[in-house]
Amino acid sequence: MAEIQRPGALYQQVAAAIREAILSGEFEPGAPLPSEAQLIERYKVSRPTVRNAIAALRAEGLIEVKHGKGSFVRSSGLPVLTVERRVSLSGADQFTTADGETWKIVDGPSVYRTQTTAATGSLLQLGEREEVFGCDRTLLHQATGARALHRTLIPFATADQVPGLADSPDAEPEAIYGMLANAGHELWWHETVRARMPLPDERSALHLPDATPVLQTTRTTHGLDRQALILEELCLGADRAQLGYRITADEDGNARTATA
After folding, report:
1. pLDDT tens-digit profile of 200-255?
2. Taking a C-beta distance cutoff of 8 angstroms, is the pair 87, 76 a contact?
3. Which of 182, 196, 238, 249 sits most deeply, having the most CB atoms within 10 A of its CB?
4. pTM of the full predicted structure?
5. Could you tell me if 59 and 218 are in contact, meaning their C-beta atoms sit under 8 angstroms apart?
6. Peptide bond into 200 cis (omega under 30)
7. CA distances from 32 to 36, 37, 83, 111, 238 (A)
8. Which helix (H) or strand (E) holds 177?
9. Where does the HTH gntR-type domain lie (predicted)?
């Protein structure tokens, strides 16, 4: 291949040429890139220029560097895991979630006291900096190796009103749903999903490659008089997982059922 002759910084020119080779299929998904020496020879540039070009493509998410093995074109295939976001009532105040038995806790549960932010306070019908119980877990999907971070926020008012909850804020979400129902609440849920780039500690805990976004679900459990009872956040890598939902028709758009 002829020497690079394009406007712009030299490493950007090399990155553009490698990007074109990836998008054209010359370098296929999952395949290793040529070695540094081969790229130096191919584009007639220096080693620092090649390294800067690879770093730029890593930041774009096109390339994944595997330590000790080299640089690889990131796979563009479908996620290996579909997380079904469903809550079911299996008996008298006995709740289950679709994937409840396929995840293993590898860190936590860790219980602490924290304060609401503007966002979490609004969802919990509280002000900012209101004190709540927090409980964090790191989860491992045993079949695929995917990891997830789960957080539960419990307002003090909810804990005080629900027998047993103040003594066990680290209970599994399904168990907390049962406590809320036993306290007389007819439960329903509202959930939102957004994609964002991970924080450094999230990237480390989830074992994410460079430039990989996360999916964050935010689920609010509601009860009597539309009261917000608890808030859950689930965070997982968008390269490994997608979310699945069962959608049913409500008669008036405001129906509250035990299945979401």
Report:
1. 999 999 998 878 899 999 999 999 999 999 999 999 999 889 999 998 887 765 54
2. no
3. 238
4. 0.77
5. no
6. no
7. 11, 14, 30, 43, 22
8. helix 173-182
9. 8-76
